[in-house]
């Protein structure tokens, strides 16, 4: 399986997952042209995308979804709550509602959804599984990580997980207090510290890739996140390749294979 973030953060989120000829985007937070340009850097086109799955209705995850879906007739999968709140359930759109905490198939990929805690209508995180059993999880915009989400994300070969803010930078930074309170709340975003303590309970034998996503540009820095990830790696004693998704450009694609080596295949 190939996984590549096209960009991640409060200015837009979009991540490509592909295996066995099926290509999906998780979230479409960039406009049509921006998404096209970023896909092109990865050697891909919007016309090759099988489906868009939306995690929740916030603009940084859904901004380009309606236009892209309508133009390229790409079905949009999301919970009914997300579709309604994002205004995506119009007759012009191929909308495909699913229930959280269920699994469904898109082409050759199996998608496992799980409800997360965030200030949105019915938000989701996902594990994307390919035919050979390779699993990649993606979870961001988490106020807190509850036990069902921890359980859901265990056993993934690759994990894209939120590390939103450094607590000191957020507390002493220039954000208005109301916004700070929202970010810090049970329905906001994960601090680096909270992210790492959740990851310490998720990361295991199978985990080979960890990509930190949705970093705040104002209240975090890649070097801080990498230092935290190093500590985590030392703590769990595991060989994990760590990457950090940026906001302004796609990251180099991660080629994910199962730890057992079964079914390894170069796809890119
Ligand atoms: Zn977001
Ligand atoms: Zn959000």
Give the count of helical stretches: 9
Parts with pLDDT < 50 across at least 5 consecutive residues: 262-268
Q: Helical amount among residues, as a percent range? A: 25-40%
Q: Summarize the helix and strand pattern as letters.
A: EEEHEHHEHEEEEEHEHHHEHEE
- List the bound ligands: zinc ion
Largest sheet descriptor: 7 strands, mixed
Could you tell me the radius of gyration in angstroms?
Answer: 17 Å
The name CATH uses for the topology is Metallo-beta-lactamase, Chain A
Shape, principal axes of CA atoms? globular
Instruction: State the CATH architecture.
Output: 4-Layer Sandwich
Number of domains: 1
Would you count the extended β strands for me?
A: 14
Major sheet: arrangement of strands: 6-5-4-3-2-1-14
Any idea of the CATH class?
Answer: Alpha Beta
Distance between the termini: 9 Å
Query: Would you tell me the overall average pLDDT?
Result: 94
**The CATH H-level homologous superfamily:** Ribonuclease Z/Hydroxyacylglutathione hydrolase-like
Strand content: 15-25%
Structural class: alpha/beta
Kindly describe this structure.
The protein is an alpha/beta fold and 268 residues long. It has a single domain (2-255), classed as 4-Layer Sandwich (Metallo-beta-lactamase, Chain A). Helix content is 28%, strand content 25%. Mean pLDDT is 94; it is low at 262-268. Bound molecules: zinc ion (2 copies). One zinc ion (ZN) binds at residues 56, 58, 118, 120, 141. Residues 56, 58, 118, 120, 141 line the site of one zinc ion.
């Amino acid at each position: 399986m190939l996984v590549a973030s096209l960009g991640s953060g409060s200015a837009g989120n979009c991540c490509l997952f592909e295996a066995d000829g099926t290509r999906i985007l998780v979230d479409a937070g960039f406009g049509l042209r921006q998404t096209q340009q970023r896909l092109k850097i990865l050697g891909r086109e919007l016309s090759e995308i099988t489906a868009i799955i939306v995690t929740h209705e916030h603009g940084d995850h859904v901004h380009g979804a309606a236009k892209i879906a309508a133009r390229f007739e790409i079905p949009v999968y999301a919970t009914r709550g997300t579709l309604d709140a994002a205004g995506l359930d119009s007759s012009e759109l191929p909308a495909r509602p699913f229930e959280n905490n269920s699994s469904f198939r898109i082409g050759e990929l199996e998608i496992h959804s799980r409800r997360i805690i965030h200030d949105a209508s019915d938000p989701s995180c996902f594990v994307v599984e390919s035919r050979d059993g390779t699993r990649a999880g993606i979870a961001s915009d988490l106020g807190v990580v509850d036990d069902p989400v921890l359980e859901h994300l265990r056993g993934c070969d690759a994990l894209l997980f939120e590390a939103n803010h450094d607590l000191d930078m957020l507390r002493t930074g220039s954000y208005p207090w109301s916004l700070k309170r929202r970010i810090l709340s049970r329905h906001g975003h994960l601090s680096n510290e909270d992210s790492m303590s959740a990851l310490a309970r998720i990361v295991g034998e199978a985990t080979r890739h960890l990509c930190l996503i949705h970093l705040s540009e104002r209240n975090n820095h890649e070097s801080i996140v990498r230092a935290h990830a190093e500590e985590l790696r030392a703590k769990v004693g595991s060989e994990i390749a760590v990457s950090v998704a940026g906001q302004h450009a796609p990251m180099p694609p991660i080629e994910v294979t199962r730890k057992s080596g079964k079914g390894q295949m170069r796809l890119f």
